[in-house]
Give the backbone structure.
Amino acid sequence: MRNIRLVTLMVLPCLAGCLNPDIVSTTVGGLYPVAPGNEQFVLVRLINQTTATLDVPIVYDDGSLPTFTFFVRGLSPGGRDTGLLLDWPIVRVAIGDLNNPYLPAVSALFPNGSSIAVAFGLPALQAGVDFNRGDTILFIFTEDSRSSAYIRVSPALIRGSTQTGPFSRGDPFLRLQILLESTGY
Amino acid sequence: MMSRHPLVPGCAGAWWAALGLALVAGCGALNPSLVGTVTSSAAPGIDEPTGTILIAVVNASPASAAAEVQVTKKDGGILSLVIPVQPADSDPANESDHTTMAQDCDVASIQLIKVLAFSASGGYQEAASNYLPLTDGVELSCGKVVVITISGNTPNILATVQVF
């Protein structure tokens, strides 16, 4: 009897996934997707967890020249997060410069008026290696005293394969895809 | 003293270790959908977004344009977005005539502040603007798509806001 109880205790959390909403999404459907999933996009999100206001150049490459730069300006601690939805295919994505990870291209303005320039510090993320169609790439800005610029940029990922629905409250990525296709964009 | 567990004789502590491992696995350590790093850099723990609101700026005019949008968060934080778009063309492969931003669902309101259209001669025109904010719980909710369409030509640029 005690063995059955122990085995139940071991198996139950694995099945429940500790109520992780992604597990719910992939098995019985969730409320909203947090990545494009099956749609022809990649979402790049910036999350500011510092006390500084950031100007962040998102650079990306769709395989053609020239490459693209989109500036998010004034991402304040209160504003906290925003994202840029990119049409697939995308070949590479980075912050600052696709070929020079040490270019200090992010500007950070602190409440005391001081400012610093921050480099991404990592090679550009590559399609098929670091991300795929339907994924959400997160660039998280945190204060880190071990970093030379005091601010560290950390990439993370939400796999699109976990966000394929069905979603009970609607899928904005699917809506947008239909809208763009129906209007010739 | 012999353990009473026949599966792990003499090692009762291993049960607790196994139980701990199972709990960890259930809580996402083996869950591929949990936010994780894609490079060797360590990502700090963050809350996953609860959902997404999209703001799409679609340019149907032959002028380069930019929309300024103010996003107010539920905790009072304000984010001002300037969203540029290139002139419209009929080529679906050219994606620069529309730009889409995404917000987490902690948004209280979204307001189009102004739209600027730039003429080939270097001047610009501000579209007539008196846009009321789209408010959470009224026009706006998690999962919605806000579409700002820029049409006409300078000096008669028009911007419309729709929610889908």
Notes: Residues 1-10, 24-43 of chain B have pLDDT under 50 and may be disordered. The two ends of chain B are 69 Å apart (CA to CA).
